[in-house]
Amino acid sequence: MDTPSKEPGARTKRTILVVDDEKNIRRTLKLVLEGEGYHVIDTESAESALEILASPNIPVDLAIFDVKLPQMSGLEALERIRKEEATRDMPIIVISGHATVNDAVHAIKLGASDFFEKPLARERVLVSVRNVLEAALARRALAEVTREQLAKYEMIGKSAHIQRIFHELEKVAPTRASVLITGESGTGKELIARAVHRLSPRQDGPFVKVNCAAIPRELIESELFGHEKGAFTGAQTRRRGLFEQAHGGTLFLDEVGDMDLVAQAKVLRALQSGEISRVGSEHVIHVDVRVLAATNKDLAREVERGSFREDLYFRLNVFPIRSPSLRERVEDISLLAHAFMQAFAKENGTKPKPIDDAVLHALVTRKWPGNVRELKNVVERMAILSGDRVTIADLPEDPHDSPFGEEDAQPEPPLAEPSVDESEPPPISRPATTSHVDFKSYLTLREHREQSERQYIVDTLKLTGWNITRTAVILGVERTNLHKKIRGYQIKRGEG
Fold first, then answer.
1. At what angle do helices 160-172 and 189-198 cross, to 10 degrees?
2. Which of 334, 326, 322 is nearest to 361 (CA)?
3. Which of 120, 153, 199, 365 could form a disulfide linkage to 173, CB 3.0–4.6 angstroms apart?
């Protein structure tokens, strides 16, 4: 049972809208739900229900729709509700006295939170209502936290790894300490650097980024420290370097592991003394700059190899922050996917599309070598290709996950002998009069099962265009398990 809110002015009861053309069903649900402390509004048609939901004066927390209604059906109403901004996320339970599997599947695809048949069991109704309302409250609370995270850090996540980063940001941002951000490409190292700047006393100063890997080695000094006119061929005017541009703010050295050793020495001097000189000048310029650096390399190993200065490494690595790979924070994938969908819709002036749970489940099972950047690309592609909502058919094939044509892949061992099901009837004894039959041509039970399973996998692969992820979702197995079966059965692309 919901606990009434104690906040001033808050509603003490959750409001439930019951829509059914049977008066007895409405009366029963009203009695049961009001007995548990809910406020109930009931109506007999989908049309009047939509009017109620459209009214700003009648806040509804949950709607219960019958499938069969006089004119507009409950499923048609559900589809309309999901298209309206104000009611898109409203939890809805669908009930039916003549339910079919198709009705249930259709209802869930349209975003119904639950579906059950009449006659209604009191405990079944109460458990469902309680669970659906609690889940909706949790989603709203999470959405609020997500908004706060985006506003503060420009990052979101509920995983332990991302929460650790938020904690570290709060500690280091107010200081003057140098920060070294490490992690794989596409994990969001620049977002961490921007959050350090935004949460620091330098937030009103400039944030200047330089990609050390994108600047030719012969120009890196000029980019960082500037140059005088005529300092080298092509230097036709005096130019302020990035250290000068970042004065009073933050300088972010991205891919710092690719910096030339000569430039490293000058960066170290600037960090130690706060002084720089333009190329072609002996004049000393004092700068007040906080330096943040990021790399996808192991700088300690680069120091051992002699390609990175040890003294600069220790100067940058005052406060290390490791940006986790997406594989380490899979519980954040759903949040990120929805956030990218919202951002894409906002950029293009469209409505964000709902993403089916099957799609989110498939996203979680991917390897993501490109990390968050790759996930963003996939979500944007699905947003472009999909209809009113993103379904499993819109999910692109994982380019990193194909067992076909892998010449160096070792075949998996044959499937293990299945355990004996003692509930099966004993084998039928063969009559003596059938001695002329060639029993060698018969399959054992295990062989028959394997042959049938193999054929079913091939048929499903053909149906999905040999898309491993979609096939795994349809078959209800993990993608890695499907890989094993494909290799074990020696299934080849295009077979059949």
1. 40
2. 334
3. 199
How open is the CA angle 485-489-491, to the nearest 5 degrees?
95
How many Cβ atoms are within 10 Å of 196's Cβ, its own excluded? 28
- Measured between alpha carbons, how far is 487 from 404 in angstroms, rounded to an integer? 9
Distance of CA 239 to the CA centre of its chain: 43
Locate tokens 């109403």: which residue?
Answer: 77
Rounded CA-CA distance 479/358 in Å is 13
- The position carrying tokens 């490109």 is 370
Tokens representing residue 396 in the block:
């692109």
Distances (CA, A) of 340 to 98, 120, 160, 301: 40, 40, 21, 36
- Please identify which residue in the block is written with the tokens 């927390």: 61
Q: Which are the contacts of 412, defined by CB distance < 8 A and separation ≥ 6?
A: 484, 487, 488
SS3 per-residue string spanning 5-70: CCCCCCCCCCEEEEECCCHHHHHHHHHHHHHCCCEEEEECCHHHHHHHHHCCCCCCCEEEEECCCC
Measured CA to CA, the distance from residue 77 to residue 71 in angstroms comes to 10
Give which of 59, 23, 62 is closest to 44, Cα–Cα: 23
Each residue's pLDDT, cut to its tens digit, for the chain (496 residues) gives 333 343 433 446 899 999 999 999 999 999 999 999 999 999 999 999 999 999 888 889 999 999 989 999 999 999 899 888 788 888 999 998 876 667 777 787 788 888 888 888 888 899 889 988 887 887 777 677 778 888 888 899 999 999 999 999 999 999 999 999 999 999 999 999 999 999 999 999 999 999 998 888 888 888 899 888 877 777 778 888 999 999 999 999 999 999 989 889 989 999 999 998 888 888 889 999 999 999 999 999 999 999 999 999 999 999 999 999 999 999 999 999 988 998 898 899 887 888 888 888 889 988 899 999 999 999 999 999 998 888 888 888 888 766 654 433 334 344 343 344 444 444 444 444 444 545 555 667 777 778 888 888 888 888 777 888 778 877 877 777 888 888 888 898 877 6
Provide φ and ψ at 355, rounded to 5°.
-115, 120
SS3 at position 62: strand
Which token pair is 291? 């330096």
